[in-house]
Fold this protein.
Amino acid sequence: MKPLFGKVGIFGVGLLGGSVALGLKERFLAEEIHAYDQDPEALEKALFLGVADRVHPQLGPWVGELELGILAAPVGALVDLGRRLAPFAHPDSLWTDVGSVKARVVGDLEGTLPHFLGSHPMAGSERAGVENAHAGLLHNAIWVLTPTPRTSPKAREGIKKLVEALGAYPLEIPPELHDRLVARISHLPYLLAVALNRLVAHSPHRDLLMFLAAGGFRDLTRVASGSPRMSRDMVVENREALKEAIYELRGVLGELEELLDQPEALLRAAEEAKRTRDSLPIVRRSLLPEMHDLVVQVPDRPGQIARIATALGEAGVNIKDIEVLTIREEAGAIRLGFASREERERAREVLSRVGYRVS
């Protein structure tokens, strides 16, 4: 069967660009993958890892042979990259980007590249680089498309087919709204992680704080482990929407500060936060029905996951999702997800009966 696309170009061979390329290869969606990057080492890795069939250190006439181009450079470089590509692009080719900020990119490139539609796969990792790319990163991901009245029908249809063929879920949102929403659920958490780590780094008790920092602190600040330069560019590009989000957060923190003297009101706020957190989709990068969590304390001994799964299986309780949260020298924790509240409570009974602490 003929692939969905002929020659496809990936412009920027990092985690996302590499993952898109591997997804295209794994699903036989492209006849040939071309990769461009200004970093020769990234191109060498792309060839060695089988991410690309051909690599290019320079733009040129080869761009005109592409049926589809995907801009995966750092968000601050996307507009300039698109402008440099435009003279070579075939008038019938499709173009998209995978940047996390959309308004300026879409505004500049929709009239510059032929059949351009901005997009943003809601997937990623703190581990950057093409060596960490994998096709599964995009599977079940929510992939935002940001059309405008200027978007051509060909672009809208073609990029939507690309997203669906890669196993992701297309979701259309206007560019400006996308940036406001992402500022609150992605860019603001990154700045919070930076802020919390700065509190530790600049404290006179830094060494003691580092020693005491537990799994909760590490989980909360995990996103600060990503590429500082790429993250800096991401939040700077979205600074106006992010400033609005910071202003709102200051108000919320002020309210919580006042509630420290009102224990019952603080409890209600905490209960609301728990309900909100518990209603989030369990499996990252996916659009799935609500699930119900249990956290199981486990000793650090072989066979614990198998013992838990066996106990629940014999009781007829189906585990829908599982995640190892922490493992230390003496104990750890596992999060289990269940499809219904009833199954979760049944699992609580079963695991408590066989000796596990469950929360």
Notes: The mean pLDDT is 89. The longest strand covers residues 292-299. The CA atoms of residues 29 and 165 lie 8 Å apart. The chain has three domains: 5-173, 178-279, 292-358.
